[in-house]
């Protein structure tokens, strides 16, 4: 049995080095993740420098996750510094080959540290931080192109061995995946174009594990806006973080659910247990 956790941390640097209230809450979440004793942890939006984690970062990370190998990719020129970025930690008893793929994405997306792939014995593990369409949907066209490139990429992996892909996909797929669909059809993350992009990804031979196991359960979300102080209190959220797997291993998935992050708003971690 593999236990996997994915979390958009919204600045690993802040979580590990700051003493702000939010950073303390972030470290509480890291402790929660630690207590699950996961085999693999995927982190998105690390916001680390191009050269990656500092010695201080590594020291603090080890306090949480001693006995793990750490792989990372950060944003690099011509993309913005300290932007996006992903990381994977896996137990030292596992063996993996690491790849930082370029998928032919538009603009600077291939340089933003958005994809990190590890090949384990029985599966590929793909950690993704999908680009946001942005305020005013200014990056929607590029986001659509990304979705096509990403679908092509994980489909190519799937011809070799099963794929477990996770991360912040920045889309609520169905109306049931957000609290207020009626007022958000023109909002980034719920446009018809982005939802169709995710449908296309799944149509290439993948399944949304949460819906596969939990059906049409309502009011279960993975993200609550920080801009609205009562969003989590009122459970006015979105489900935009996913574990998707190759169709042929979907029936080996035993659990796919959210992990309680307390009163910390923004993303909550998600959990997958799969028996391969």
CATH class descriptor: Alpha Beta
**What are the segments in which pLDDT stays under 50 over at least 5 consecutive residues?**
none
Beta fraction: 15-25%
Instruction: Give me the CATH architecture, please.
Output: 4-Layer Sandwich
What is the 3D form?
A: globular
Question: How would you state the average pLDDT, rounded?
Answer: 97
Instruction: Spell the H/E element sequence.
Output: EHHEHEEEEEHEHEHEEEEE
Distance between the termini: 6 Å
Give a short account of the largest sheet. 6 strands, mixed
Number of domains: 1
Question: Can you count the beta strands?
Answer: 14
At the fold tier of CATH, the topology name is Deoxyribonuclease I, Chain A
